[in-house]
Design goal:
Elements: E1 11-16, E2 20-29, E3 32-42, E4 48-49, E5 52-53, H1 56-68, E6 71-72, E7 79-84, E8 89-97, H2 101-112, E9 123-130, E10 139-148, H3 149-161, E11 165-171, H4 172-180, E12 186-195, E13 200-207, E14 209-216, H5 220-231, H6 235-245, H7 253-282, E15 302-306, H8 315-323, E16 327-329, H9 338-341, H10 346-350, H11 356-363
Helix pairs in contact: 4-11, 5-6, 5-7
Amino acid sequence: MLEFLSLRPDTFGLDINDSSFKIIKLRKKHGFLQPVSFNEKGIAPGIVKDGIIKDEKAFIENLKEIMDTVRGEKLGTKYVVASLPEEKSFSQVIQMPKMDEKELMSAVGFEAENYIPLPSEKMYLDFKKIDPIVDHLDHLDVLIVAVEKTIVDSYVSCLKKSGLIPVTLEIETQSIVRTLVKDETSLTPIVLIDFGGDSTDFIVFSGHSIRFTSSISVSSQQVTEAISKELGITERQAEHMKIKYGLSSKKPAHRSKAVLKTIGPVLSELINEIQKYLEFYSGHDFHDHIPQKLGKKNNVEKIILSGGGANLKGLDEFLSKKLGIPVEFGDPWINFSDKFKKNIPFELQKKSLSYVTALGLALRKTDSEFYQ
């Protein structure tokens, strides 16, 4: 969203968050789309805080470094599709009378003022008309997305000062959906949970659109910090133990039990937040327009996990047991051909769940026939 150019230049996806940058560039080779460049780089705490760029100089230096050290082919382009933080955005599905595109463009801005929590002059607004699964509606469903101008302007400024040309800026939840939902269509409501290093994105998707989103403050990094503090070890050692033991009962038993006991309170908080938003969604009308024969209205069919934190052993089974809903790991390559999957670099395949947002951004400016 937030288009700056109508052209379709050669672009790459850039995922920006509080703790890291991730890059993916896709290109058509031998008749199908495949990754030709990728990279990730951790950034020091405080450079980006809660989605706000705090240290512009350090931000630019780190961004230039990750571009200069990219794996695979050199980027060879200045055009970028970059993420915007979910916690600094607002999205809502609204209903509008049926009208043509020109009338809709004019009317949405006025109607959106009834939903956006800040004055319209302080927000950038974009919208997307949602096609219903069954077209028997006497109205239009429209997804509106708004982001504070100060946030967008700061991102654009830093990208330009890094020598880049921003083609599109997009809320990270939109990118996650583009990557993980097959053909961006689901006949029943599903929940996507991106368990990241800084926060957790909670997304309800149904039909052809996001219906509800929220940012949960619980993060994978909090799990690491809890282990480090409780066991008196470095965060690097704690990260290793988290990956090795997770929620399993792997031997030595005293080690795995210590890790499980330590991370329990963090995961309990995550469960509580997820349950709160599930209850909120089930109790409200989000205009899903799903045929009744497909199931009970607002009944979530499954939960899809992504993000670097999703690699925590046993997390899927733990969440499924606690929430009473089937939980599965997302497939970042679900919208790609089998030929594509044979050409994914091993390192990228291994960490693919943490590259979900960057991949969705890279797909933002590609032609769908290349990867569907």
